[in-house]
Amino acid sequence: MKRLSGKLAFITGASQGLGRELAFVFAREGAAGLALVARRGERLSELRAEIGALAPATNVVAIQGDVGQPDDVERMVATALAAFGGRVDVLVNNASVLGPSPMPYLLDYPLEDFLQVLNVNLIGPFLLIRKFLPAMIDFGGSIINVTSDAGITGYPGWGAYGISKFGLEGLSQTWAAELTGTAVRVNWVDPGSMNTAMHRAAEPGEDPSQWAEPGDVTEVFVYLASDESAKVSGRRFEAQGEWRKQAGLSSDSMVAQTGVQRSDFATADRG
Ligand SMILES: NC(=O)c1ccc[n+]([C@@H]2O[C@H](COP(=O)([O-])OP(=O)(O)OC[C@H]3O[C@@H](n4cnc5c(N)ncnc54)[C@H](OP(=O)(O)O)[C@@H]3O)[C@@H](O)[C@H]2O)c1
Fold this sequence. Notes:
Elements: E1 8-12, H1 17-28, E2 33-38, H2 41-54, E3 59-64, H3 70-83, E4 90-93, H4 111-139, E5 141-146, H5 159-178, E6 184-190, H6 197-202, H7 219-225, E7 236-238, H8 243-246
Parallel strand pairs: 1-2, 1-4, 2-3, 4-5, 5-6, 6-7
Helix pairs in contact: 3-4, 4-5
């Protein structure tokens, strides 16, 4: 049995990196529909064709747009809901920008760049959650926000990016708390260091082969998108950490879900 059979998912930042890998793995796991978002529409069209060849039963909707623009967010949500009959089961807020590279210290950070990073990485997810909620409240839904260790530790030079992820952590906790008792759950995942364009731009002097490939960190996302995590909300996961143990799963199986309940929110581990 495929783990995402019948699921309808909306993934931002799907044109490359982690988002692209999530699109492939969600399709492979039987997702009925994928709404894929990025600014570069041509990349999404290519991806739709690739997924079509591998998983022809998955209805892929490519939506070109900028999650940092409220009008685009409005259109993206309307397009996905129209394509999926008013339902979306999974929202992955993955799209993100790093800001200027090399990364300036806060003292030198251009205000325009600072605002853009916050708009894309924080305001975009806030608006997307708000716009999808009416549909999710009726049918239930899993919201997964992609965070970073730079969202819990203030590293010099990680400026607006890190601050936006601090905000995303707070946004995630607050949405999860406010949605307690509903069928909508909110969790957030730090994927850990990955060999992607973003990380190569952030640390150009480092050897990217030391970082995980984005396709290797997708398992926790499948878990959170699936019904195996139906009672899990308000939790922070580390994709390259001990998340299976944290979730009460055995290392080779995602079936033995135990003990992670909404009521655990107040005592959730701070990875
Ligand atoms: N790479 C790492 O080591 C690492 C570590 C911790 C956390 N993360 C997080 O993991 C997530 C994925 O990162 P990644 O490394 O895969 O990044 P990436 O390779 O730079 O990909 C980012 C994606 O977001 C899209 N995007 C950027 N701005 C957008 C906007 N305004 N509107 C819509 N789409 C937009 C990009 O597509 P377009 O350019 O076509 O719009 C691209 O598809 C991010 O949230 C990142 O913060 C990454």
